[in-house]
């Protein structure tokens, strides 16, 4: 059995969740209570099988956190564990490094 019934299925699910959460605290709370924040965050990357899934995920995250202090507290507990290699960035001759002092990511040239 296929994980997704059609191309773009995950994108559509994220779009529905994002639109339902728009200025609806009850829906925002339900997403948090059902441990849905992290799975939504995981959709914030480019996926060839789900065109525009990243954009819909960003929209959904905006709607899940807007005006909801409990959700904002939940996400503030997360800590960066480091940078992830990205082939697109590597092709440009760059890599992402996590600066522990500033708590920010930065792009650096790959030394040859």
UniProtKB/TrEMBL annotation:
Residues 9-107 form the Ataxin-10 domain. One of its GO terms (biological process) is cell division. Coiled coil: none annotated. GO terms for cellular component: cytosol. Keywords: Cell cycle, Cell division. This is Ataxin-10 domain-containing protein. It comes from Acorus calamus. The lineage of its organism: Eukaryota, Viridiplantae, Streptophyta, Embryophyta, Tracheophyta.
């Amino acid at each position: 059995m296929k994980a997704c019934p059609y191309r773009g299925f995950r994108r559509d699910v994220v779009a529905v969740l994002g639109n339902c959460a728009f200025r609806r605290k009850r829906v925002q709370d339900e997403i948090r209570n059902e441990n849905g924040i992290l799975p939504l965050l995981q959709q914030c990357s480019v996926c060839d099988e789900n065109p525009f899934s990243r954009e819909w995920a960003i929209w959904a995250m905006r709607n899940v956190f807007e005006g909801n202090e409990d959700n904002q507290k939940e996400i503030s507990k997360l800590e960066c564990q480091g940078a992830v290699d990205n082939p697109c960035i590597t092709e440009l001759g760059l890599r992402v490094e996590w600066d522990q002092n500033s708590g920010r990511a930065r792009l650096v040239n790959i030394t040859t």
